[in-house]
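in:
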C-alpha cells in the first residue's frame, strides 16, 4: 500500500506546484520590465499603476501615451492587495520619478473577496509609502464614480467610492501626496458615472479619458517640475 501512496502523493505535489496560481499576476509584465532601459539623464518617467481603467486607457486613447515617458502597468480586474504585491517589480524597479495610482474600485466590487474601506485605503497608503521610501513622487487618483457593477450588481458602490476618496484625499493632504480628483468632473446626480463618459457605468470611454487627461496632466506637470528642481539642487 505504501508503494502506491508515495507515487500518488508525489504526483499530487508536482501537479500543485506546476499549476500554482500567479495571484498578483507577477508574470504579466516581466518581459516588458526586463526590456525597459534605465531612464536617461533628465528623463522623468511616470508609471501608471492600476486596474482595467488604467490598462484600457492606452487602448482608448493611445495618443495620450505616445512620445512621453509614460509606462502603463494596469491589469484588468486587479484589487489593491494584488497591486501591493507587484508594486516593487512593476513600479519601484522601473526607476520612475512619479507613480500614478488609480485603484480601489475592484476591491469595492469584492473581486478578491470582501474588503472594508479601511483595508483598501491601507493598501493604497502602503503603496505610497513604498514609493516615497524609494524617492518616487506619488499621485493618488480618486476612484471614478460608480452606481452599480454590471458583473456584480447590488453592492451599492456609490457611497463606498465617496468614502474611499475622502480617506485618500485626507491622507494626501497630511503626507504631501498629490491628489487628482476625477470624481467631481465625471459624476452624475446618482453619484454614478455620467452615461456619456462610459459604456457600463464603471469603465470610461474615449470621452471619459479625454476629461481625465487634462486633470491629471495639470497635477503631473507640477509634480514632475518639483522633482526636477529637487534633483538640480543636489
Amino acid at each position: 500500500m505504501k508503494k502506491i501512496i508515495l507515487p500518488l502523493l508525489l504526483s499530487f505535489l508536482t501537479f500543485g506546484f506546476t499549476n500554482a496560481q500567479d495571484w498578483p499576476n507577477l508574470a504579466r509584465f516581466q518581459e516588458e520590465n526586463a526590456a525597459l532601459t534605465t531612464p536617461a539623464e533628465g528623463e522623468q518617467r511616470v508609471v501608471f499603476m492600476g486596474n482595467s481603467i488604467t490598462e484600457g486607457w492606452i487602448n482608448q486613447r493611445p495618443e495620450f501615451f505616445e512620445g512621453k515617458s509614460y509606462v502603463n502597468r494596469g491589469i484588468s480586474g486587479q484589487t489593491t492587495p494584488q497591486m501591493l504585491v507587484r508594486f516593487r517589480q512593476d513600479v519601484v524597479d522601473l526607476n520612475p520619478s512619479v507613480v500614478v495610482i488609480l485603484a480601489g474600485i475592484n476591491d469595492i466590487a469584492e473581486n478578491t473577496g470582501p474588503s472594508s474601506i479601511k483595508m483598501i485605503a491601507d493598501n493604497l497608503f502602503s503603496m505610497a509609502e513604498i514609493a516615497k521610501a524609494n524617492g518616487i513622487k506619488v499621485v493618488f487618483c480618486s476612484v471614478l464614480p460608480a452606481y452599480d457593477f454590471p458583473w456584480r450588481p447590488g453592492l451599492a458602490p456609490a457611497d463606498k467610492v465617496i468614502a474611499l476618496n475622502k480617506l485618500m484625499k485626507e491622507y494626501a493632504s497630511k503626507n504631501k501626496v498629490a491628489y487628482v480628483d476625477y470624481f467631481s468632473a465625471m459624476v452624475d446626480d446618482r453619484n454614478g458615472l455620467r452615461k456619456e463618459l462610459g459604456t457600463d457605468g464603471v469603465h470610461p470611454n474615449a470621452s471619459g479619458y479625454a476629461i481625465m487627461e487634462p486633470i491629471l496632466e495639470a497635477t503631473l506637470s507640477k509634480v514632475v517640475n518639483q522633482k526636477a528642481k529637487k534633483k538640480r539642487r543636489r
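note: The first helix runs from residue 2 to 18.
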